[in-house]
């Protein structure tokens, strides 16, 4: 264990509300428990769940830090019981259940990935949440296979941009929806095969045109609400619909006869509340299947903007405005 300060600066909130409720606070530096490491945080990713938590709509799971921040990068400075010594001093990025908006953050050792040479720490902090979310939902829950076609909503978001890149690396045809011509151009530059401006055209009809009426094999949906019925119209027979957020509303009305006759599968998941065992296994799979592409420089997150930690409110404002393309991060150092 390296010499550690007693206190640290973190960004939290005393009450729920808009971005202005975020404020710096002084807290004790946490100490790692069994199976945990303490990371001196260089950067923390900013994600939509952070915004929803700040608004009071997404409480942290039991035992998690009340601070926002679900992914970090930095240096391991202390080890908990049972963690092997080689991690000490290493640069890692990690998926965490909270606490990322701080100078020091606890992370399960089994959810840490080594930062390879050539990967800047801001990029490293932008990987864990989106990478694990997309991999699990597209390839594990959605059963995506080489040669299939996927429809991704929000193509220039952190999740959307990761879905484009992973999809192309693993042999998918990727269709995305975006709000506006500029974002469609950006999605095509990221690697999407087709980009639909949902403000200018009906994405259901556009998908039919692109696929010659066949439809897509998979929809990755973060809107829900009235999008669900429209998404089902985009699916080919035996298609899969995977929901990962409900930005358009939690309730959907669908035709179950259509689900039966066309053998559609509806599924979805959230990552934060899953067990430590599940997250460890998912991290292990990422280490084996995707991390070699990161190490080889073939996969890099699309970066939008880095804000100093004291400007966390500005980072949240930018995310909520929807102007960002790719990932927003906070610089903690």
Any overview of this molecule?
Helix 4 links the parallel strand 8 and strand 9. It contains eleven helices and 15 strands. The mean pLDDT is 96. Strands 3, 4, 5, 6, 7, 14 and 15 form a seven-stranded mixed beta sheet that branches. The protein has a six-stranded parallel beta sheet with strand order 10-9-8-11-12-13, sandwiched between helices. A two-stranded antiparallel sheet has the order 1-2. The chain has two domains: 181 residues, Medium-chain alcohol dehydrogenases, catalytic domain (Quinone Oxidoreductase, Chain A, domain 1, Alpha-Beta Complex), CATH 3.90.180; 139 residues, NAD(P)-binding Rossmann-like Domain (Rossmann fold), CATH 3.40.50.720. The longest helix has 14 residues. It is globular and about 65 Å long. With 333 residues, it is of the alpha/beta class.
Notable characteristics:
single chain, 333 residues, Rossmann fold, 2 domains, seven-stranded mixed beta sheet, 30% helix
Order of helices and strands: EEEHEEEEHHEHEHEHEHEHEHHEHE
Structural class: alpha/beta
Low-confidence stretches: none
Oligomeric organization of the protein chains: single chain
Instruction: Kindly provide the radius of gyration, computed on alpha-carbon positions and rounded to a whole number of angstroms.
Output: 20 Å
Q: Percent helix among the residues?
A: 25-40%
- The overall strand count is 15
Number of discrete helical segments = 11
Number of domains: 2
- Output the CATH topology of the largest domain: Quinone Oxidoreductase, Chain A, domain 1
Strand content: 25-35%
Q: What is the overall pLDDT average?
A: 96
C-alpha termini separation:
20 Å
Tell me what the CATH architecture of the largest domain is.
Alpha-Beta Complex
CATH class group of the largest domain: Alpha Beta
The CATH homologous superfamily of the largest domain is termed Medium-chain alcohol dehydrogenases, catalytic domain
Largest sheet composition: 7 strands, mixed
């Amino acid at each position: 264990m390296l010499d550690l300060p007693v206190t640290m600066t973190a960004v939290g909130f005393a009450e729920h509300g808009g971005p202005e409720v975020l404020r710096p606070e002084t807290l004790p530096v946490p100490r790692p428990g069994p199976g945990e490491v303490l990371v001196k945080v260089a950067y923390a990713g900013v994600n939509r769940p952070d915004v929803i938590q700040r608004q009071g709509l997404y409480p942290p799971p039991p035992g998690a830090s009340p601070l926002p921040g679900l992914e970090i990068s930095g240096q391991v400075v202390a080890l908990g019981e049972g963690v092997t010594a080689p991690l000490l001093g290493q640069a890692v990025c990690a998926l965490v259940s909270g606490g990322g908006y701080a100078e020091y953050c606890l992370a399960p050792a089994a959810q840490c990935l080594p930062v390879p040479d050539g990967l800047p720490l801001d990029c490293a902090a932008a990987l864990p949440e989106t990478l694990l979310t997309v991999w699990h939902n597209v390839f594990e829950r959605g059963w995506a296979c080489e040669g299939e076609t996927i429809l991704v909503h929000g193509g220039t978001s952190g999740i959307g941009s990761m879905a484009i890149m992973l999809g192309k690396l693993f042999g998918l045809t990727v269709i995305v929806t975006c709000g506006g011509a500029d974002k469609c151009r950006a999605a095509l530059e990221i690697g999407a095969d087709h980009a639909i401006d949902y403000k200018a055209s009906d994405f259901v009809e556009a998908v039919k045109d692109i696929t010659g009426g066949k439809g897509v094999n998979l929809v990755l949906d973060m809107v829900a609400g009235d999008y669900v019925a429209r998404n089902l119209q985009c699916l080919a027979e035996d298609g899969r619909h995977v929901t990962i957020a409900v930005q358009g509303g939690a309730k959907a009305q669908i035709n179950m006869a259509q689900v039966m006759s066309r053998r559609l599968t509806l599924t979805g998941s959230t990552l934060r509340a899953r067990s430590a065992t599940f997250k460890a296994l998912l991290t292990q799979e990422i280490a084996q299947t995707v991390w070699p592409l990161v190490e080889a420089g073939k996969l890099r997150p699309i970066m939008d903007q880095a804000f100093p930690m004291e400007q966390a409110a500005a980072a949240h404002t930018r995310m909520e405005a929807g102007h960002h393309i790719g990932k927003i991060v906070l610089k903690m150092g």
